[in-house]
């Protein structure tokens, strides 16, 4: 896909059932090897690309119908 694994990809251990490491850091008894940011901390640190307000309107097409 062209992503740089060292600078553009962040690996975060989370649990969907218990919600560990989503908002609060995971307990060291559960995951002692991870000491990085939580999922929301990574989302908050993402850089938002600048958009041209006078640029073209782009609408994604999610599905199409065929008769």
Tell me briefly what this model is:
The protein has 67 residues and is mostly loops.
Alpha-beta content class: little secondary structure
The ordered string of helix (H) and strand (E) elements is: H
How widely separated are the two ends? 34 Å
Count of runs of 4 or more consecutive helical residues: 1
Mean pLDDT: 86
Give the proportion of residues in helices.
10-25%
Shape: elongated
Beta-strand percent range: under 5%
Account of the 3D structure:
With 67 residues, this protein is low in regular secondary structure. It has a domain of 33 residues. 10% of the residues lie in helices and 0% in strands. It has one helix and no strands. The mean pLDDT is 86.
Give keywords.
single chain; 67 residues; little secondary structure
Compile the SSE list and pairings.
Layout (H helix, E strand, L loop, with lengths): L38 H7 L22
């Amino acid at each position: 896909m062209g992503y740089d694994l060292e600078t553009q990809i962040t690996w975060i251990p989370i649990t969907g059932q218990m919600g560990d490491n989503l908002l609060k850091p995971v307990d060291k008894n559960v995951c002692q090897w991870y000491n990085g940011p939580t999922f929301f901390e990574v989302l908050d640190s993402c850089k938002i690309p600048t958009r041209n307000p006078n640029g073209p309107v782009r609408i994604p097409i999610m599905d199409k119908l065929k008769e």
